[in-house]
Amino acid sequence: VDVNCNGGQGNDLASQGYLCVNSQQVTISNANSTANFTVTQAPYQITGYVRDSGGQPVTNVNVYANATINGTMYNVGGFTDPGGHYFLNVANGTWNVNLECNGLSMLGFLCANGQTLNISNNNGIANFTLIRATSQISGSVNDNLGHPITNISIYANATVNGTNLFANGTTDGT
User: Fold this and answer.
1) Whole-angstrom Cα Rg for the chain
2) What's the rounded Cα separation, in Å, for the pair 3 and 24?
3) Tens of pLDDT, residue by residue, the chain (174 residues)
4) Handedness of CA 9, 63, 42, 66 (dihedral sign)
5) Contact at 8 Å (CB) between 149 and 141?
6) Model pTM?
């Protein structure tokens, strides 16, 4: 049994100021079962923007954060708006804020390094500046008979001028 965490329609936990909760397995006995959820309020926000190196906003980027609070792992997420801004409702804790790299790769950007924010009765800011991918690595993944394998994730990383850069892609079978 799951609770709608990030539906964005006002009928989800995130839009009402709560953290997502883990799903539960239930056993139905005598045609009935019960699943009760206890949710944690998220009274603070992590906000920021995602821009390219020229200062232009990057829209529809998946921004997510996770934290372990009192032994429970929490995840929150959202997307950048047309101005490149985002917000995430969070509770007190140490949050790891990241951008979803597959989507960035499809937009022609390298993956940005994540940021760690300590939220302690306050809001936090995590801004990201993206670097365009100016080069391309190509290749293939084949089985031992030479047949191409499709939909395999490929990852690459490099350190340039002290900055860790990441890129990824998916094989297309050619």
Assistant:
1) 20
2) 9
3) 877 776 666 677 877 888 887 777 888 888 888 888 888 889 999 999 999 999 999 999 999 999 999 888 888 888 999 999 999 999 999 999 999 988 888 888 888 889 999 999 999 999 999 988 888 888 889 999 999 998 888 888 888 777 777 777 788 877
4) positive
5) yes
6) 0.77
Nearest to 114 by CA among 133, 95, 132: 95
Centre a 10 Å sphere on the Cβ of residue 119 and count the other Cβ atoms it contains: 21
Among 147, 64, 54, 42, CA closest to 109: 54
Tokens found for residue 127: 């801004």
For residue 13, what are the contacts with CB-CB under 8 A and spacing of at least 6? Answer: 3, 4, 5, 6, 19, 20, 21, 39
Start-to-end CA span in the chain (Å): 40
69: which strand partners? 72
